[in-house]
Amino acid sequence: MGSDHYFSATPASAENLRAINVTLADRDLEVTTAGGVFSPDRLDAGTAVLFANMPPLPPGGDFLDLGSGWGPISITMALAAPHSTVWAVDVNERALDLVRRNAEALGLTNINAVLPDDVPDDVVFRTIRSNPPIRVGKDVLHGMLERWIPRLDEHSDAWLVVQRNLGSDSLQRWLVATFQPGYSVHRAATGKGYRVLKVRRHGNPPTEPITLTD
């Protein structure tokens, strides 16, 4: 694809729409994907590890899927918590169009697929679930997390899945150093070469220093 990546705003590659079968929220579904988005042919392994290791969702509130791609995390959250409002955020317009197509086809009216700047400033999130776009580079990734993690509601968590050989351990150390006081960070699970990292926003700064834990 040359300079065309899944994190391009407007992918130049052929759309090449396709239907794939996936299991999300314990339901067998047919969804639409396309070229120029992340993992267009299957549910990627990292997202599967996240699903296998994250806790049940809050019953309602605003949820964030950061770097939504064609929408597996957003669809899962919308199905599992029908009283929630899911914000599927991506810079890739094609990915957002796919989320909208899939939400409409599945009858999901609680997904908002939007560009980052289109999320209202007063929205705070009961949870963030994300397979973040590591390949955008550290500076861009860190900027994304610095923008969105502070928008967690009090006593709420972000769950991030990151491939170990793409820097999950260094990202964990950065999260610990960046989000304190008032947050805790730990590795919640490991599987198939991925780490699941949990970032919790506390109601008040913790009384003990934040430490890096396994």
Overview in brief:
Helices cover 25% and strands 31% of the residues.
**Name of the top-level CATH class:** Alpha Beta
Q: Helices and strands, in N-to-C order? A: EEHEHEHEEHEHEE
Low-confidence stretches: none
| Overall pLDDT metric | 91
CATH homology group: Vaccinia Virus protein VP39
Structural class: alpha/beta
Strand-residue fraction?
A: 25-35%
Task: Name a few traits of the molecule.
Rossmann fold, single chain, two-stranded antiparallel sheet, 5 helices, globular, 214 residues, alpha/beta
Report what the structure shows:
With 214 residues, this protein is α/β, with parallel strands linked by helices. It has one domain (18-201): Vaccinia Virus protein VP39 (Rossmann fold), CATH 3.40.50.150. It contains 5 helices and 9 strands; from the N terminus they run ββαβαβαββαβαββ. It has a 7-stranded mixed sheet with strand order 5-4-3-6-7-9-8, with helices on both faces. Strands 1-2 form a two-stranded antiparallel sheet. The longest helix is centred in the middle third of the chain and has 13 residues, at 93-105. The radius of gyration is 16 Å and the shape is globular. The termini are far apart. 39% of the residues are buried. The mean pLDDT is 91.
